[in-house]
Structures are given as C-alpha cells and as structure tokens.
Amino acid sequence: MTLRSRPATAADIQRFYPGLSASVRAWVCEVDGQPAGIMGIALMRPAHSIFSIVTDELRPHLGSIVVGRMTKRLGASIARCRAPVLAVRERGEPKAAHLLKRLGFRFHMLLDGDAIYRFEGVN
Description:
The chain is built from 3 helices and 7 strands, in the order E-H-E-E-E-H-E-H-E-E. It has helices at residues 10-16, 65-80, 96-103; strands at residues 3-7, 23-31, 34-43, 48-54, 85-88, 105-111, 114-119. A 7-stranded mixed β-sheet has the order 1-2-3-4-5-7-6, with helices on both faces. The termini are far apart.
C-alpha cells in the first residue's frame, strides 16, 4: 500500500465536487495511486470555506504522516487568508470538531442545525 499527497488538479476538484466553480487551494491524498480524499479551501466572498472528503479507503490512514502534512498545508493556507474563513462541521465525522479546533477554528453559530466554525487563529 502506498500513500501520497499532491496538489489537487481541476479534474480532482470536479471529481470530488462536481460543478464547484470557486477558486481553490487543495490537496489530494492517493491510496495506491488512486485519489482517496481531498482537503482544501474555497476562496469565496464574503468568506472563504474549508472542505474535505475522506473515502473509506483513506479513513484507516487519517493518522498518517502524509495526511498530517496535508493538514499542515491547509492550516498555513488558512492563516494567510485575509477574508474570514468558515467551516461546517460534518455531523457524521466524530473527529471533525477536534481537527477544527487544532486548525484554529472556534464554534461560531448554528445554521439550520449545522455547527458553523470560524477561524480565530492558532494559539
């Protein structure tokens, strides 16, 4: 089994998010040469938004160095943003709140039952 990350291409973005037309900074994680997950930031106004998709093939490797480096790259991109950065915590992802906190997000509000987090900076 090989695990590697790389910058996402336009084709990767369309594969994971068909129809997305925002500018993005994103990275793909491949398992055995096949895209198995993506994380990034959509650069929109008035606020940017982070996103991620984890497939079943990638889930057992979330604690890997490769995924950790991707998360670090995402964190650096978020820190450079001049517009507010928001995130919606996925209800079915038990580790989402911990990851958002680690990236410097804090709970901001509930919107239609979804928890919205806002980047406040890393302590």
